[in-house]
Amino acid sequence: METLREIRRRIRSVHNLSQVTRALEAVSASKVQKAQVAVMRTRAYAHRAWEVIVNLSSVSGTPLHPLLIHREPVRAVAILLFASDRGLCGAYNQNVVRAATEFAAQLSVPTRYIVVGRRGRDILWRARADILATFPGLPAVPSLADVSAIARTAIEEFLEGRADEVFLAHTEFVNLLQQRPVIRRLLPLHPSKLEEQAVSKYVVDMRPVGAPDYIYEPDPTSVLEAVLPRFTTLQVYQAALEASASEHAARRMAMRNATDNAEDLLRELTLMRNKARQQAITRELLDIAGGAEALQQIRGAEA
To answer: Is 229 a residue whose pLDDT tops 80?
Structure first.
């Protein structure tokens, strides 16, 4: 059994750790509120923009923009993966990386990764994945300017022919208790035929909704040249917001669980300390009683 000093040392250590986890939980709770507001403000617009993109690519007989060109066969794929820079967020990073790597394994073509976040980069590096670029240090609530370089890297990878398809891998924010990893097609801006691809439980795609053809002013090529890159960047921006909100929600829950576990451990250690102190007091009383009894026997023998 541990000594009383060792138990007290453990109690101090666990108490200090619980203060840290409680502070991290409070910080994450504040950040997740801001990230959640940002996600909800942009989600509807991003969804409608993606719907417009899909309809544009489906109603036109021939592709009017390079970002709409569907290449066959697919010889190379790039995955834009959103992870976190810091840990202490449970299985958040492992889940999204596992979703991306499982999807890439089912595609059976060379896959390169554009990774946002140090933790995702480290996991993929240890798995010996082909990492094209990394973008660490994204703010807690990123702006459109923060993700423009990330989107530009993915677009250039597609336009220059190094990737025939580009996918987004991120964690979708459902609520404060639930986040799920998803895979979304980013490029080409064309409705995919999932039955002809690798079947993945993580893939989420958009289908045409039967909208009529659009009227372009001044002409289709000029309009699409300006709109499609911005819509693509918008999809990356929405994924960054979803990932940020999911990260802070996961960290908040992980820190709450850690705080609860620390409090449970503190109660157990306090009980152990009380038992150890009671045993020490009992031993001291027994020593005193034994000493008094021995002294009394010595005095009786002398008398």
So the answer is: yes
Note the pLDDT of residue 57: 61
Helices (H) and strands (E) in the chain, counts: 5, 5
What is the C-alpha separation between 127 and 37, in angstroms, rounded? Answer: 35
Q: If residue 116 lies in a helix (H) or strand (E), which one and from where to where?
A: strand 111-116
Class for domain 4-20+256-302, per CATH? Answer: mainly alpha
- E strands, 128-258, where? 130-135, 165-173, 179-187
Cis (ω within 30 of 0) for the bond into 181? no
Tell me, which fold does domain 30-254 have in CATH?
Pyruvate Kinase; Chain: A, domain 1 (3.40.1380)
For the chain, the structural domain boundaries read 4-20+256-302, 30-254
Handedness of CA 290, 291, 293, 298 (dihedral sign): positive
What is the tens place of the pLDDT at every residue in 69-120?
Answer: 888 888 999 999 999 998 889 899 999 999 999 999 988 899 999 999 999 9
Spatial separation of the C-alpha atoms in residues 23 and 231, rounded to whole Å: 38
pLDDT at 110: 92
DSSP annotation of 23: H
Task: Judge residue 240's burial from the number of C-beta atoms within 10 Å of its C-beta, 0-12 exposed, 13-18 middle, 19 or more buried.
Answer: buried
Q: How many other CB atoms are there within 10 angstroms of residue 15's CB atom? A: 14
